[in-house]
Recover the amino acids of this structure.
């Protein structure tokens, strides 16, 4: 996959040196008055040019009758005008030479066909004129570093956000405002905030791409309902990953899984939301389930410290809390590994009454000697081998006498280890929390949320450190649009490296007998026809045929059945194949997502796929490491490791097949609708994988 | 199950009219000084009698040289003395005629064998003397209604909790203090708080039982690490359920699943924690995963309003939040059912720009006319048929101008519907939240937490309204301690109503042939021996035997194999059975939990049980409705509904079998260790269930 260098197209919008406000109102409480109010309150240092034909000044700032009258060329125009005046305003912006315009007004694509037409026309005009558009139907953009607030969001009413490590991108203005408010409340500053609304031009993918290369962003929060430009979105996520910028994503619409109409078995499992899960897994994006989780993870990311391992140290004043944190650690995949024996002995010498294995329960008695507590923490960090430690201190930080001494003791214990992440589960009033944070600790009231956030950081760390082998895509001739027979499908995929059984197609009974002799008995016979997809339904399959006579008779039987049930079908002969060998039956499929293109599905066969929906998706193409992660992520993974004494399955060979099918699907990006390999039998380790059946449906030929 | 009337034994401890403090210190910051300080600060109106041989007064209160000197008989004594003086103090309490003593000091069962011995001796002394004990190694007890604070918990340092609808029971003093602190912070008052520590006498079960019948408790929060008295715990939970008192439980130790040694297949799946899940499901307890969730649910319960259905109305200012809440609703099992068409029309007339189906997205424009918003909410409540409604208002309540008007508008819309639960997802400073709560709304910052809490209330409502048919337990003769053969096991369970195949045991080849003729061919042959558990391993099973000659020959073959492989085994003959019929293979088992007694397990056969651990447990006995809930709660439930065109399975008959095995297990409470019915084939609807194999292991005869 090629990685596009992000456009500089958003530079002017995020860092304008001057701003025009078309339709600026003198009333700072009105939608059309708020942007100017926020620019003034935010201390924007660049030029501010209100345009209002009816006033000399607006909110005390000199106003202009028209954009043409403005005595400079502003970088950005905020269009606080009704929808009916927007088209003309866009033309005026182009005439003036403005780089970017923000359209606040609604009434476009979201309101129906007519609005969509107008929106398209405006976008066309802007594109032709070299003007970038944000919106329409958006809440705008801001950058507190330079006091630029190109927004009318009500959420700035009480307080403006300060600058900081966060970049926020939201398709919903309300949600973008909501998380900006929560971020400020949590003490996380924001350097860039953008709401993309109807995305007539600038979309969430371009915004992500832009933020992924900004050196002054440490974490990106995004809210997405649906992506328009799949390839660009992937490219943006990969850029972010390579630049070690965590993306904390809220993608809504999970409950609409399955709403999408689907044309094949594989595709029917590929609800759009499952595809997003695949994309996020593939690029190391953290998908938050709740807003609180999204804020928590972003808060933890803002330190820029990502634990290299999943080993978690736990220090607690209460045994119960230690168990609670251990339970949570298991749930989130962190390892509460025991302290080395020598370190345990040191701790026991310090605090004879403590549990020292991990969790280290100092009991509340540790508060009687803060030096001992500090030393205890130091030993844990020095000898425990933990990249991250959680301390549980309940409401002690909020007590009058112990708050400061406790904070100092923890800080002293940690002072030699600035590379470690220390999260405290504690209750404190806002000023207490701020003081603890200033000492270098992450603070969470709830211990579970602390564990969840640390686990997310471990996930980012692993994703950032990946150096996967790249998949290789060979240019491939089109497969055309005609339906493929099973044997043609197998030939096609076999050439691409997918292993099938030694199968032969015979056109006569005598040839069938000779083929079976060559393959060895027993064999399976199947009718071969591009027109018959479900062969068993017409009795077109015979298994366990034991000798040449049976094969020759079977040939005639199958031909007769085909002629009887499907006289119209084109018959290419009878397939002769060896009997299947024992192994774990899996399913591999490819479908086309309208946004992201070819998607590979993998699942364990039978009820696992059909009833339990235990399947996993990845965008094609992907490399071997991703294929292994894909296999490892299904719930029934243990079935491949050998159950009840059966041999472990050849997962390496399975991963190879997944890589190859993904490369094939990517090479045929435009001409394949679906592929079903079902079943794909995974044999014992060293014996490989064999696909027993193949269905390839070219694009534009869906029945 | 008999329901014990709870003892009044805790009345004196929770509502003492006077209190002695043995070892009371004049220093109010010391552990031994804090209880007196808290009693004074709490305004306890009863008698307070500090006992301190060295002082005339303690913290300004007249002190006594010894308990004997106290000029009254206090109800309760707080023992703030070292462990070494505790035994004598207990004797003194008995001599004085005190009803209950609280032992704060540690160094007993939790410190090892020696401490356990001392603890037992003190408990024996107390029991013989009619003195109830709380602790040792506990943080005590409090009741803010009367200012009684028999505790030294540090968490009261800054502020005392006020009275309210909450009862808190915790085995951990630190965790009990932690949640009491959080409850106060959340504005929920506490009427009773007890920490049970080492539970030498008073345990969590008795405390629950006591709280379950207090009219001034609306919700019980509990923290449990392990229960000592299973039957009493069950009785307490059932009392709470019948009295419509929600129990919000934190049970820690989930990650130790499987640590328990187990002697049979069924038992090895019955990790102790899974048994707690079963108990909680059975008695309608809400098991919280996180502390935050525990507080959230208790907070929501404190209103005492429990929605009768799972239909959820959603009002939002933002479409994105509406999708987010819909996603969460699906996750938690709530139904965002659409508004009736007539009501949708009314809403559309009110707010033409709104989405009106449900979620009702008024958009932020609704804030321009609060009367319209109020009317909108009124229509939703009046015509939507929702018992619970969530409103999403982001940070609007925290704006200077809109906070009050918004609150009034929502209250106006809700005023005719005091029986509905209204939860608001909103951001507000503490005083803003308090004002909204005072208007009758539940307030959650995060919408997901609001949905989760409402879903918990729906769960309580359903549990409270259950009127299950009671299981019937017949007195049963002991099955002895000798191992049972398969046929004996089947006879025993067959008599208890478990359906098996028409099977016969033949002692000769000729008898085998005659039996097979009577049953009909083909048949299965199995060796019958109480000494051979795994028959297939010695080739002791033959399937699909087609005629009399085969049966007679097979008889001899099986006898020969048994003689060869297990010459020592007692052979009772050969079992003749019809071939199994097709259906869904399930597993039913019984194991003995050391705390709760017989436990019934159910799972779908094969990998579902072994790899996916898709099994569910219930304490025996239970009725039909519980059996149905049990079946419905497994992940693979869809397999019983007919997959890929197969007929739906006879779930009614399956439920009957579960009830019968639970009744059998309860009747044999003391003499059965495990039962395995594997497989139990569930046939098509109307055709019943048939168990193919049975293993019964009596107690005290484990191999």
């Amino acid at each position: 996959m090629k990685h596009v260098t992000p456009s500089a197209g958003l530079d002017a919008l995020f860092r304008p040196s001057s701003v025009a406000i078309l339709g600026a109102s003198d009333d700072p409480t009105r939608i059309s008055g708020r942007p100017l109010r926020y620019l003034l309150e935010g201390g924007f240092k660049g030029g501010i040019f209100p345009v209002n034909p009816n006033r000399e000044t607006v909110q005390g700032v000199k106003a202009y009758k028209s954009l043409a009258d403005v005595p400079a060329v502003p970088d950005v125009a905020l269009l606080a005008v009704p929808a009916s005046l927007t088209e003309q305003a866009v033309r005026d912006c182009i005439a003036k030479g403005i780089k970017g315009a923000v359209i606040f007004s609604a009434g476009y694509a979201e309101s129906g066909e007519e609005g969509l037409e107008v929106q398209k026309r405006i976008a066309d005009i802007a594109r032709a004129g070299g003007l970038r558009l944000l919106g329409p139907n958006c809440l705008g953009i801001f950058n507190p570093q330079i006091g630029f607030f190109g927004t009318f969001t009500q959420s700035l009413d009480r307080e403006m956000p300060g600058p900081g490590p966060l970049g926020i991108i939201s398709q919903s203005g309300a949600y973008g405002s909501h998380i900006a408010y929560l971020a400020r409340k949590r003490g996380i500053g924001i350097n860039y905030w953008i709401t993309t609304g109807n995305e007539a031009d600038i979309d969430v993918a371009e915004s992500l791409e832009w933020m992924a290369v900004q050196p002054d962003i440490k974490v990106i929060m995004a809210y997405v309902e649906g992506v328009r430009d799949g390839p660009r979105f992937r490219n943006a996520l990969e850029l972010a990953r390579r630049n070690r910028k965590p993306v904390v994503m809220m993608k809504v619409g999970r409950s609409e899984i399955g709403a999408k109409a689907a044309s094949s078995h594989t595709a029917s499992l590929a609800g759009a939301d499952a595809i997003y899960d695949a994309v996020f897994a593939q690029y190391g994006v953290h998908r938050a389930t709740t807003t609180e989780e999204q804020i928590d993870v972003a808060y933890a990311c803002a330190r820029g410290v990502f634990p290299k391992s999943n080993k978690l140290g736990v220090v607690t004043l209460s045994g119960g809390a230690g168990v609670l944190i251990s339970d949570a650690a298991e749930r989130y995949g962190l390892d509460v590994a025991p302290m080395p024996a020598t370190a345990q002995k040191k701790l026991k010498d310090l605090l004879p009454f403590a549990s020292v294995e991990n969790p280290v329960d100092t009991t509340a008695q540790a508060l009687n000697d803060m030096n001992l507590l500090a030393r205890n923490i130091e030993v844990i960090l020095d000898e425990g081998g933990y990249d991250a430690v959680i301390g549980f201190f309940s409401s002690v930080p909020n007590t009058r006498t112990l708050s400061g001494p406790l904070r100092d003791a923890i800080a002293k214990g940690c002072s030699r280890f600035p590379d470690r992440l220390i999260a405290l589960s504690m209750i404190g009033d806002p000023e207490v929390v701020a003081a603890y944070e200033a000492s270098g600790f992450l603070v969470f009231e709830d211990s579970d949320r602390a564990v969840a956030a640390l686990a997310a950081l471990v996930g980012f760390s692993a994703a950032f450190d990946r150096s996967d082998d790249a998949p290789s895509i060979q240019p491939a001739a089109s497969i055309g649009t005609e339906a493929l027979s099973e044997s043609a499908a197998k030939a096609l995929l076999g050439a691409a490296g997918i292993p099938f059984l030694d199968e032969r197609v015979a056109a006569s009974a005598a040839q069938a007998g000779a083929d079976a002799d060559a393959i060895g008995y027993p064999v399976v016979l199947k009718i071969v026809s591009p027109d018959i997809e479900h062969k068993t339904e017409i009795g077109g399959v015979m298994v366990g045929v034991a000798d040449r006579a049976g094969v020759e008779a079977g040939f005639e039987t199958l031909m007769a059945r085909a002629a009887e049930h499907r006289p119209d079908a084109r018959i290419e002969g009878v397939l002769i194949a060896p009997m299947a060998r024992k192994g774990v039956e899996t399913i591999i499929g490819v479908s086309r997502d309208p946004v992201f293109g070819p998607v590979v599905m993998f699942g364990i066969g039978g009820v696992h796929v059909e009833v339990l929906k235990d399947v996993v998706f990845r965008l094609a193409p992907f490399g071997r490491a991703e294929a292994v992660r894909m296999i490892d992520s299904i719930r029934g993974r243990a079935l491949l490791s050998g159950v009840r004494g059966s041999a472990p399955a050849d997962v390496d060979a399975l991963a190879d097949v997944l890589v190859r099918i993904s490369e094939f699907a990517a090479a045929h990006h435009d001409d394949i609708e679906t592929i079903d390999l079902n079943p794909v039998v995974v044999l014992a380790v060293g014996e490989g994988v064999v696909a027993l059946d193949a269905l390839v449906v070219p694009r534009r030929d869906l029945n």
In short: The radius of gyration of chain A is 31 Å. DSSP finds 22 helices and 29 strands in chain A. The longest strand of chain A covers residues 672-682.
